[in-house]
Amino acid sequence: MSKKPVAVVTGGAGFIGSHMVDLLVDEGFEVRVIDSLIGGREANIEHHAKNDVTAEWRDIRSLQPGDKLFSNVDYVFHFAGIGDIVPSIEQPLEYMSANVQGTVHVLEAARAAGTLKKLVYASSSSCYGMAQTPTREDHPIEPKYPYALSKYQGEQAVFHWHEVYGLPVNAVRIFNAYGTRSRTSGAYGAVFGVFLRQKLANTPYTVVGDGTQSRDFVYASDVANAFYLAGISDTVGQAYNMGAGNPQSVNKLVELLGGEVTYIPKRPGEPDCTFADITKITKELGWKPKVSFEEGVQRIVQNIGYWAEAPLWDPDSIAKATKTWFEMLSPEEESKKS
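Above: the chain's sequence. Below: its structure in token form.
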């Protein structure tokens, strides 16, 4: 009987990471998870048999060369890190430490193992800033806040380890992932978590601007499949944009969820549209999204109880939570910097 391939999933109890664990188990992998449980939940992976998935609840910055978690590892899927715009503006030291230095700890543990076939890094489309659309991989990089900068510098470290040490790597720049198990706690952030809690409470959806802004929403299982293909492919040293290639408006999301709306001010530094050009990932990896936006929203609504304990946001609490955002990224502040 041949040995199962071994995959380490950092952030494997989190949103995308747990969907990655599901896919790898289905593909016959031995999966090892490392997660600090700051954003992840044990419940996201506890349905797997222990002989398929083992987990260590610690920070990736605890990893060192020779760490037993990486012994005989074949693949590493690196999702661990911290997200959200406002906290990154308020706590840049922690973001740079977790997302850049944390990535370096993962790279060194993987390099020391000596058995790695591929490491795939979860990068972010936020590195493009106010991008032209559809956005290709060669679009200029212009991070607008520390979260975006930290994710891009993590990506740069990944490719540096490829160039200097020959580590086999790829990166996937995620556009707007959504799906079951997305984070329910912490800072004001992704529109789905905000709206789902508001739907449960039967309060109006807080729509930013006029709701015509669109996002390239891609379902979590499709995201995991993109990472899997980036891992097992022959390609190396490549960055791939990954979205559905079919932007959906916030108004469309409201229409699918059903309910009343209240409008809040448009925010500086946010693009009107995110739109991934997925030509490269489709051509080189054979990846295409399978879950339509309508189907994805339906899956989430069927599991809406997951968001029962999430914060319930209203215009006043959002205004307070995003005060730093407006102060740091307003056009007036931008003009002072130029």
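Residues 332-338 have pLDDT under 50 and may be disordered.
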